[in-house]
C-alpha cells in the first residue's frame, strides 16, 4: 500500500524553495490528493502538477502557477481532474477542446467597437452631409464605445444599453435619443450579419420605453432670446444703419426667417435671382432639413433680390456671405453684429433689445420666434408659417398627400413681414458699404 504523504500547509508552500543542488526542476508532494505535486524551478518559481494515470498511461496535468492558484484551489482542481478520469474523461483532452472552442468563438465573435467600424464603412457613404457623418461617429465613440466597446455584440443586453444611455438621458436628451437609435442600427446590422440573435436590446417601443422616461417628458426646450414685436421696427432701423457683411447676413436672415447656419452657408448655386428663389437642398449642413425631405424653397422678395445684388462677390468664392479671409462667415460674426446693435441702443440711453420673458438680449435665432409670433398675431395660416421656418408639418400621411409648399402665398406673407419690420420706412433701397 502506497505510503500516505503528510499534508503540507499554505505556510509550508510559501516557505518552500529550490535546493540549489542541481540546475533542474524539483518536485515535492503536498498531500491531500495523491499525485499532487508542487514544482519548483531553479529560479524558485512554483506551479502545480498532478501526476496520475489516464487510460493506462502516466500523465502530468498542469494545474496553474503559485500563488495565483492557492494550495486549496490546487487540491480542489486535482480532485476534479481525478473525478473526470473516473468518469472516463481525459482532463487534458477536455481542456484542449475547451480552449479550441473558446478560440473559435472569439474568432467568430465581434465586439461592439468593431461592429461600429464595419457598419459605418458601409452606411456613412449614404450620408451626404459631412457634419452628419461626423456626428454619427462621435456620438458612438464618446458615449457607447467607452461603456460597451469591448463587449461582444452577441452578449449585449438591455441593461448594457441602459447603462450607456442613463447618464445623459435627462441632461442631453436629444443626443441620448439619437445615440439609442444609432446603437439600435449597429446591433441590427450585427444580427443580419450573423453576429447576434434575439431581440434588439436598443429597441425603444416595447423595450427601453419600459425603463426610461419618454424623451419628450425630460427634454428641456431651449428658448432663444427673441425680439419683442414692439421693438422689431426700431431694431430693423438700427440694423440698416450698420455696414459690413455680417450686418447684411443678419438682414437676410431676418427677412427670410431662416436659421443662422443656413444663411451663413448659403451659396450662389442655391440662389435663382430670375425665379426669385433660394433653394436649400435636403441634408445640407446646418440647414436642419432632413436628408430624405424635399428641397426647401424660400421665396425672395424684391428687397431680398436687391440685397443680394448689392452683396459684393469674390472670385472663386461660392458663399453668398463670405468672411474677409475666405470661406463662410462664422456664427459668432452674425451674433456679434446683433450684440453690437443692442449695446449701441443701451449706450444711447434706451433699454436695448431684450426678450420679454427672460430679459436677456435677443439673438439671431430668436428672430424666428419673433416672425412666428408676428404671423400668429396677423392671422397667417399656421402651416404656412411653419413651412416658412422649415419645420416638419403634419403627420407622415398628411405630408405624403400634400402637393404644395404654398410658395406664392408665403411670398406674400414674407413681403408683409418685411413691411412690418420697416414700419413707415421706404424698404426698396438697400445700402451696402464695405465687406468687413
Describe this structure in words.
By secondary structure, this protein is an alpha+beta fold. It has 17 helices and seven strands. The chain has helices at residues 10-15, 71-86, 91-108, 112-123, 130-148, 158-169, 173-192, 215-218, 232-240, 245-256, 260-264, 302-310, 331-347, 366-377, 382-388, 396-401, 407-422; strands at 26-29, 36-40, 46-54, 57-66, 271-272, 277-280, 296-299. The protein has a four-stranded antiparallel sheet, covered by helices on one side. Strand 2 and strand 3 (46-54) form a beta hairpin. The termini are far apart. Residues 425-436 have low confidence and may be disordered.
Tag the structure with descriptive keywords.
436 residues; alpha+beta; 3-stranded antiparallel beta sheet; 7 strands; 46% helix; 9% strand
State the total count of DSSP E strands.
Answer: 7
Radius of gyration: 36 Å
The share of residues in helices is 40-55%
Low-confidence stretches: 425-436
What is the count of helical runs?
17
Instruction: Give the N-terminus to C-terminus distance in angstroms.
Output: 104 Å
Order of helical and strand elements: HEEEEHHHHHHHHHHEEEHHHHHH
Mean pLDDT reading: 85
Oligomer: single chain
